[in-house]
């Protein structure tokens, strides 16, 4: 009896088996169902598996027909010329699904009343994933196939032969704001570019770019907007981009104003350390995008005339490796009383970052005592709003020294947000960082493809 109840429970689970990429009802079965002697599953069933053909020790099988031993027909999915799904009305689909289910659900097999079975079918129809309304993959488009054929044709063409074409070389370049880009040294022709533009137009690239900069949630795997562009937007754009009802650009400039006020007070000596000494050393603790971009930018500005002059008297170091030797090298000649620690972590739970953060906190305590005010005066945090409690528990003054960023900015773009703004502005001054943000590389390419 317990065995039969177990099988009935398993059948309920099988109602929502994933088949062909979307959720569909499975065939009910239980221990009383026998495989007909006239049915050769191995020969007649397309979904034959070893599991459905195995026999038990007494040769009578595992108690019945395998759930995949009879196929259910589903309404055909047809795409129109734009790649949108063309389905029958929902009532037609529901009727078809119910009809197919009825072939497998007799009165003695039904585990629920008829109206509940119909409700299950209706629920199934209403829960068809939205992915069905998405266009087919780019690799299924005619433009992609044309590019594939073209790629095979030019594969054997040598670059030196392509460079003999003056019309091609004169056309394959772009220039913007003093940056010259020559892509004629690629194994591509003018026809290649036309085919690439055709593919871009087929995929509505311009529309997708507009969707991104307008704050639509194009990151469908995490249901997030992708708005690193907002980090460089001017104050004139406030009120034009919203995410979940929040003015994204206004948020960005509120944080930038906070960073400007803090860094100018730091560099002027208004903000001092626990012992009253002026702070001149900065250590930024982070990993991945939380330190790579800022470190690269710091290296670039190090050789610029304005950067050289504005950084005199200050030092900036980055700590990313979880290695005692690296920590020792970072702190070797620094005076803790003159050092500010920046902890960069979106969640404030990143294992490597938090281990280094605790190490640096202990370094401060070892020299100045374990007073909570030591951390409040020598540690600042760059993190997301959702991590506020974690930042507070660490001991950071969240009222003054907490600089937020958002989940709609990927790690690789962190340099344009608080993760880059705080350390760069402390070393070089906010004015130089602001000039960096004002660089916008959106030139009007051919066909107006990237004109906003």
Tell me the layout of helices and strands:
Layout: H1 2-14, E1 18-19, E2 22-23, H2 41-44, H3 50-53, E3 78-79, E4 85-86, H4 90-102, H5 114-126, H6 142-154, H7 159-162, H8 166-171, E5 173-176, E6 179-182, H9 190-202, H10 205-213, E7 242-243, E8 246-247, H11 248-268, E9 281-285, H12 292-302, H13 305-310, E10 315-319, H14 324-331, E11 339-344, H15 351-368, H16 372-378, E12 379-384, H17 388-394, E13 402-405, H18 418-428, H19 430-437
Parallel strand pairs: 9-10, 9-11, 11-12, 12-13
Antiparallel strand pairs: 1-2, 3-4, 5-6, 7-8
Mean pLDDT equals 78
Widest beta sheet: strand line-up: 10-9-11-12-13
Helical/strand content category: alpha/beta
**Which word captures the global form?**
globular
The helix count comes to 19
Please tell me how large the radius of gyration is. 32 Å
């Amino acid at each position: 009896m317990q065995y039969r109840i177990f099988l009935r429970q398993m059948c309920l689970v099988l109602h929502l088996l994933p088949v062909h990429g979307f959720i569909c009802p499975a065939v009910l079965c239980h221990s009383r169902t026998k495989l007909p002697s006239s049915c050769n599953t191995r020969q007649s069933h397309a979904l034959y598996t070893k599991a459905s053909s195995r026999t038990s020790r007494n040769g009578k099988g595992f108690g019945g027909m395998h759930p995949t031993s009879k196929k259910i027909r589903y309404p055909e999915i047809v795409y129109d010329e734009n790649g949108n799904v063309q389905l029958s009305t929902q009532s037609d689909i529901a009727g078809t699904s119910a009809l197919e289910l009825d072939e497998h659900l007799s009165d003695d097999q039904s585990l629920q009343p008829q109206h509940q079975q119909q409700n299950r079918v209706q629920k199934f129809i209403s829960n068809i994933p939205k992915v069905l309304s998405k266009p087919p993959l780019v690799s299924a488009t005619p433009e992609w196939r044309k590019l594939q054929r073209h790629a095979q044709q030019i594969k054997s063409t040598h670059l030196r032969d392509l460079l003999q074409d003056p019309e091609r070389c004169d056309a394959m370049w772009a220039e913007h704001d003093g940056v010259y880009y020559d892509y004629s040294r690629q194994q591509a022709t003018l026809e290649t570019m036309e085919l690439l533009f055709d593919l871009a137009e087929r995929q509505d690239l311009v529309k997708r770019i507009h969707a991104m900069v307008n704050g639509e949630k194009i990151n469908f795997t995490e249901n997030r907007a992708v708005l690193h562009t907002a980090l460089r937007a001017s104050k004139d754009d406030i009120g034009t981009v919203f995410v979940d009802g929040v003015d994204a650009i206004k948020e960005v400039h509120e944080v930038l104003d906070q960073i400007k006020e803090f860094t100018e007070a730091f560099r002027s000596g208004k903000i001092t350390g626990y012992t009253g000494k002026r702070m001149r050393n900065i250590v930024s603790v982070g990993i991945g995008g939380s330190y790579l971009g800022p470190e690269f930018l710091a290296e670039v500005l190090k050789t610029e005339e304005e950067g050289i002059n504005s950084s005199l008297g200050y030092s900036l170091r980055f700590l990313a490796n979880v290695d005692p030797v690296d920590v020792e090298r970072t702190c070797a000649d620094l005076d803790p009383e003159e050092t500010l620690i920046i902890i960069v972590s979106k969640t404030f739970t990143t294992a490597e970052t938090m281990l280094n953060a605790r190490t640096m906190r202990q370094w401060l305590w070892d020299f100045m005592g374990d007073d909570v005010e030591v951390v409040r005066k020598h540690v600042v945090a760059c993190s997301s709003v959702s991590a506020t409690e974690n930042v507070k528990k660490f001991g950071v003054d969240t009222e003054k020294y907490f600089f937020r960023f958002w989940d709609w900015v990927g790690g690789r773009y962190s340099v344009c947000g608080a993760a880059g703004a705080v350390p760069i502005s402390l070393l070089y001054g906010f004015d130089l960082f602001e000039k960096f943000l004002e660089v916008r590389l959106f030139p009007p390419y051919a066909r107006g493809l990237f004109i906003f």
